[in-house]
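Pilot study result, target chain (492 residues):
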Amino acid sequence: MLASAFAGVVPAQKPQPAPTSPVATRKAPAVPYVTRVLPNGLEIIVYPDSGVPLVTVELAVRTGSFTEPPELNGLSHLFEHMIFKPNMARLVGQCEAALRQGPLNEYGQRICSGALNLKSEIGDTSYLNKIDQIGIVNNAETHEEVVNYYFTTTAEHVATSMRFIRDSVRFPSFDQEDFEGERQVVLAELDRHESEPGLALQNTMMEKLFYKYPSRKQPGGTRETVSTATIAKMQLIRSRYYIPNNSAIIVTGAVDPEAIFKLATDNFADWKRGPDPFEQFPMVKHPALEKSEGFVVERPVSNLLIQIGWHGPSIGEDNASTYAADVFSYIVGQADSRFQRAMIDSKLAVAADVHYYTQRNTGPIRITLVPTPGNEKAALKRLYDELAQFTDPKYFTDEELENAKSLLEAEDLYRREKLSSYSQVMSFWWSSTGSEYYRGYYENLRAVSRKDINNYINRYIIGKPRIGVALISPENQQQVKLTGNDLIGGAK
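Predicted structure:
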């Protein structure tokens, strides 16, 4: 998986490695996590490493913008903001404390009746007295294909962290005042993002590239959808996607896997399984682009920024091309690659990048280009000349191919050095690809051949309809006069 330029779950195919390849024949690094699936469908993933005395406990849910029709766009993100607000377990604790002082008045009875009815399910709430002690880091994130919530803490607070996550996801209170407050927070985030010129380029690309279902690629949503959100819609999202058979608990750090499995079983075994949301609400199928189109977006920016985008491979439909895409992006991303020499060493551009974003629901391929002033159209012409040569047998060497695989491995191994953030990497893979895809990632990566890369390029890039977007200042556009046809290389 390659990161964005701005920012079905099936096992991967396993091509046979070439016997003469030194990378393919060297033993692949282990992916030392262990998994267990509870009877209710909740997957527990544990990555034990005692190198640092910290533990990250994370809940991942397979949802995000790829599950959102236009009327719900952005509400997975709003729901994420609500999950760590005071829940029914906290209210039970407060009501019990009030009862110890004497009978409840009418207001107290009204507030506490619902919470106390849940007492038998929630259980002892004395753990809440330790909540302020557990968080070295706690946060949550919403992406296209996963929403995750996590605590990084020390080993003695793992049980408290997991219990708090359990009560937050299973017994939210959805207090109206809290909801209104968080809705304003999310609206303020949208306003801040709208003030960032780069977002205009990204939104235009996603809206045009995924023209029929653009909301499925925009996790932030819109002011309209967020401002009209209701608690009923929050409950709808919860009932549809926040079920054990659509979730995973991921624990990394200084832990014993068997102890974590027991702890997860104690906390989540009675969480009721729900209907498979992707059977009830299947992923949309993004239709192919019918033609190439280019768009010029004018904003007060200092540098011209260009992106060219294509529909890329989807996990579960063409796994082999997802590996090939990763390897090829690394080949052309190296400073001494033919692509970089043609674009950067020639002084036509100050930056040029080819990247693919691994997704279950159509991952985008994007080339990002920052031309040097005065060379805007020449840089685009050279870019398309290079693109046409991507499958030339001389475009990259066998050594470059093997080096790219090694660099990809090294990058992932480096990420493991910080397990507090590596849990988010694992939750991404679990949700978008399934944990078995990642377990076989190195093996399949090493097996990528030149033929695999050519198949990927021919199937998704060369001669395929594309979207070109330029972000440019009005003043610069008066001089450069970029057209949509420039941005798509004169394609029809």
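One observation from the pilot: The first strand starts at residue 34 and ends at 37. A full batch analysis is planned for the follow-on phase.
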